[in-house]
Amino acid sequence: MAKKFQNYINGKWVDAKSGRTFENRNPANWDELVGTFPLSSKEDVEEAVKAARKAFDTWRLVPAPRRGDIMRKVGDLLTSRKEEVAQQMTREMGKVLLETRGDVQEGIDTAYYASSEGRRLFGHTVPSELPSKFNMAIRVPIGVAAIITPWNFPMAIPTWKIFPALLCGNTVVFKPASDTPATATTLVEILLEAGIPPGVINIVHGGGTEVGIALVEHPEVDLVSFTGSTSVGKKISEIASRSLKRVSLELGGKNAQIVMDDADFDLALEGVLWGAFGTTGQRCTATSRLIIHESVYDKFTSMVVSATKKLRLGDGLKSGSDVGPCVNEKQRQIVDEYVKIGQAEGAKLLAGGKDATGDGLSKGWFYEPTVLGDVTRTMRVAREEIFGPVLSVIKAKSFEEAIDICNDTTYGLSSSIYTQDINNAYRAIRDIEAGITYINSPTIGAEAHMPFGGVKETGNGHREGGWTVYDFFTEWKTVYVDYSGTLQRAQIDSVDR
Ligand code: UN1
After folding, report:
1. Whose CA is nearest to atom 11 of ligand 1?
2. Within 13 A of 365's CA, how many CA atoms are on the CB side?
3. Over the stretch 65-99, which tens digit does the pLDDT of each residue have?
């Protein structure tokens, strides 16, 4: 019997008030039921927000270094359960074990970073313009944070948001993707075991339209942190703006790897395979476009095509699998539709291009790693996020044109250039419109202690990761202490009259 999972609200594991549930199945073998989960609604959100609001009164007063101590325990527990969590994650969303281990490691790194931030959370002291007066700006917690996360990084992305939120003294209502509720539940269990008090963390499972929107609309929710599609991000932003909530959005990408004529081609090949087909192309940082200098277009394209054909599709739990399935049926259909759209627009199918049905693949949402050649910048496969194992290859006449094509997108998350020319490398850093630029490495592989996020329609200007996320989860309070014993008027008594 598959396990029955529950919500965690106000210190208790509970079913959805409606009693409804949904199933979560292994995308590499749809006969395998991972578990059943509460299909929650507005009523459940109501309880969770109420609990988080109440818990804020006490959690905000816990010294940040103490909160950091709990985060250190979270890191230790995640470390000790790394393999088990990685296996659970592969089972529920399909990416290969090597990558799910990396996903858990990103959570561990984030926990230890948060732990040490408990002893920093630096503010500023600034001289006053008046004598015997002390000025400072300190960080204070904000309140209840709604954390809405995707399925492609079921541990890393929730930790990017939840750990800093808690460390800063906020309380959390967590709505994980309905494709990865089991990993999310494990994360909550670990937080509780490490000592996060009841009510400070709550998890409400269910769909985006019911649970997600109810959270964004809720007047007692102060912060919303969301990673997902640009269309949903825009909707969240619109709704949240009515109540002036603070919102952090990490949205789509159409990331390009540029390969110049002077590149190390073997290195660039490894990079593009990892960037395009790692996580089955289901990363917002995935390499979706490959822009090649025309003088090496034929040569490098054929290297990519023959290497792509050698990638081994398979169950991510089995050693020897390079690429796992798409996360679900709908995602695989979308991928296939895009491949057809690309061909109808004039792109050439060079590898893959269909559902994969070989040995051990017939009960999973496998799709062959696909390369589309002769893509031009106006085609939909060069412009729209596909979120699957599809690489669109585009020819550029020069370095300048390569950068221009790279920037010809509404998105701006990640980017990469392979070149041995240091001047062009620095020009690329200067001119590429993206939140992240890699030189001689692929578009994926962000490190937990660095700012993560994008420009244009990839987000709304916030950054996760590193020190920058702590700006999102705290409010500045400006404090003036006048110890002169007299009324001192700023702008008046501070200037010669
Ligand atoms: C995402 O795709 O949403 O840089 C996050 C990377 C990972 C994080 C990706 N560390 O590819």
Report:
1. 444
2. 23
3. 999 999 999 999 999 999 999 999 999 999 999 99
270 is catalytic: no
CA distances from 428 to 85, 393, 398, 417 (A): 38, 19, 13, 7
CA distance 277 to 15: 38
CATH number of 255-439: 3.40.309.10
Among 47, 99, 210, 250, the active-site one is: 250
User: Which residue out of 149, 254, 444, 469 has the highest number of ligand 1 atoms within 8 Å of its CB and is therefore the one to mutate?
Assistant: 444
The model scores a pTM over 0.85: yes
Q: What b-and-e string marks burial along 284-308, b requiring 16 or more CB atoms within 10 Å of the CB?
A: bbbbbbbbbbeebbeebbebbbebb
Q: Which of 168, 284, 326, 406 is catalytic?
A: 284
Where residue 263 falls among pLDDT bands split at 50, 70, 90? very high
Span 3-251+459-478 CATH architecture: 3-Layer(aba) Sandwich (3.40)
Is 168 catalytic? The answer is no
- For ligand 1, the distance from its centroid to the CA atom of residue 454, given in whole angstroms, is 12
